[in-house]
Amino acid sequence: MGALWEVFWAASKLGLTSFGGPIAHIGYFRDEYVVRRQWLSDRAFADLVALCQFLPGPASSQLGMAIGAKRAGIIGAIAAWIGFTFPSALLMIAFAFSADTLSLAGAGWLQGLKLAAVAIVAQAVWSMARSLAPDRSRASLMFGSACMAILVPNMWGQLLPLLISAVIGITLLKPQTEKEQPAEQQDDKHPVGRISAAVMLVIFFLLLILLPIAGTWTGSPVLSMVDSIYRAGSLVFGGGHVVLPMLEVEFLGSGELKLTNDQFMAGYGAVQAVPGPLFTFAAYIGAALQTGPMRIGYALIALIAIFLPSFLLLIGTLPFWDALKRNRIAQAALKGVNAGIVGILLAALYDPIFIDTVTSSEQFVLVLILFAFSQLWKRPPWQTVLLAAIAGLLFL
Fold first, then answer.
1. For the chain, which residues make up each domain, given as ranges?
2. Secretion signal: which residues (predicted)?
3. Following CA atoms 14, 271, 27, 29 in sequence, which dihedral angle do they give, to the nearest 10 degrees?
4. What is the dihedral of CA 108, 88, 61, 78, to 10 degrees?
5. Distance CA 292, CA 33 (A)
6. What sign does the dihedral 15-17-22-23 (CA atoms) show?
7. Does this model's pTM top 0.85?
8. Which of 7, 35, 51, 195 has the highest CB neighbour count under 10 A?
């Protein structure tokens, strides 16, 4: 029990202070778990980072869950998730409630948040392209994936480019060779048995197959919401920025469980300004979809739905990772998939983010200023969002 509470409080501290997105989160995690607490070595930490980059879902949240599992088993993974996720989730639910009392139509601060989203996603595309598509082959995969995602504006426009990129990666790209290092018995222990892991993987695939069937058969709006959000959490590589186009396809429009563009982009801008994982955007969606007493319930259901596939895949993969990470075919496929991810993010930057947001030369100038503020001056996203909201309130 002592180790469990230790995991929870350490994760809560990170959940309250970790600004800057998944890459920055990994730096915070290393300082807390490797340097300060010495729960695992640098080598074991790097192995877990590689696993979380390999799996779909929010890499930093999965990394926290993996460290929690190493420390206190499956319950430790849950404690780490709660501690790291709930501060951000509660802030996003509060924002959804406060948005009811604010005038969204034509609000300058809202337009500022939307323009901040343009600049932040542009900065993410720039940074990810430099690291994940640095050569001609992978840059070609990036642009090809972007073209397909733009021309096929639905779920298949995101899935097919990733599948094609994986096949091309296996065929044409050489896996990165890593120098073998001696095993460290303390760090390589597996807190999850292979049978338990296999059960988690079976549950993951059963939910992925059965949720859309159950939603269609019952006509339940709650099941339909869970299906949409669970599928997004299951199929998204690259973190919170890439989940945007999938959630946009599912929840923008008219109907019982749909959001307006203003609601969607306001929440996406707000989630940049809070600590913790970007996937807590799902809690905002759940709260914004309802206006009655079930709002908090919807928010919590949506929050669990988007993180559940990450939890199941992580726990299901941990015991098998040592063999998989040495597989050269898997390494080559991952290089291709990562380039395709950047292309999907580039497509999302164009549609819906840019074409639905930037409507004047003045707004484009503000986007350029925000981009420079983030990329050149290396300011964290929450400062970019704050500057955008103030500029929108004063000038738009």
1. 2-173+194-395
2. none
3. 30
4. -160
5. 41
6. negative
7. no
8. 7
User: Phi and psi dihedrals of 188, rounded to 5?
Assistant: -90, 5
Residue 168's CB is within 10 A of a number of other CB atoms, namely 22
The pair phi, psi for residue 381, each rounded to 5°, is: -55, -35
Least confident of 202-216, 233-247, 259-273, 277-291: 233-247
Confidence of residue 137 (pLDDT cuts 50, 70, 90): very high
Instruction: Tell me, rounded to whole angstroms, the distance of Cα 165 from its chain centroid.
Output: 20
Q: Are 171 and 28 in contact (CB under 8 A)?
A: no
CA end-to-end span of the chain = 53
Q: 62: pLDDT confidence band, cut at 50, 70 and 90?
A: very high
Listed in sequence order, the residues at least 6 apart from 22 whose beta carbon sits closer than 8 Å to its beta carbon are 58, 59, 60, 239, 240, 277, 278
State the helix-helix crossing angle for 108-132 and 240-251, rounded to 10 degrees: 130
Q: What is the token pair recorded at 81?
A: 């998730």
Could you give the CA distance from residue 278 to residue 218 in angstroms, rounded to a whole number? 31
Question: How far does Cα 162 stand from its chain's mean position?
Answer: 16
264 to 5, 214, 247, 343: CA distances (angstroms): 36, 26, 9, 22
pLDDT tens, residue by residue, 100-121: 666 555 568 778 877 887 887 7
Other C-beta atoms closer than 10 Å to the C-beta of 98 total 10
Query: Which stretch of 7-16, 111-120, 385-394 has the lowest confidence by average pLDDT?
Result: 111-120
Residue 356: name the closest of 257, 245, 217 by CA.
245
DSSP one-letter code for 320 = G
pLDDT digit string (tens) for 375-384?
A: 888 887 678 8
